[in-house]
Design a protein that fits this description.
Number of helices: 1
Largest sheet: 3 strands, antiparallel
Shape: rod-shaped
Strand order of the largest sheet: 1-2-3
Number of strands: 3
Radius of gyration: 26 Å
Mean pLDDT: 92
Number of domains: 2
Low-confidence stretches: none
Structural class: alpha+beta
Length: 86
């Protein structure tokens, strides 16, 4: 992790096209501004974590639903095989 000290109004450049500016320092909070291309997602960590967890849960549910559907189709096919004369 790179740790930098900056004063209000000073900036940090990331990857040539992202500018982070220290806007204010008030008690235990630092206010920053971030300028980045529109295609670069910028999220607070807690929002990112919430989205990540929701995506993991959705993937888990989709996998379970797929397994359930495949099991049902398999059961139907087995039932059709049993009904056909040999």
């Amino acid at each position: 992790m790179l740790v930098l000290a900056r004063k209000v109004g000073e900036q940090i450049i990331v990857a040539n096209d992202i500018v982070i500016t220290v806007l204010a320092v008030e008690r235990d909070r630092i206010k920053i501004g971030i300028e980045a291309p529109a295609q670069v997602p910028i999220l607070r960590y807690e929002v990112y974590e919430s989205i990540r967890q929701a995506n993991q849960e959705a993937a888990r549910l989709a996998a379970r639903a797929t397994t359930d559907v495949l099991a049902s189709v398999s059961d139907l096919l087995k039932g059709q095989d049993a009904e056909q004369p040999a």
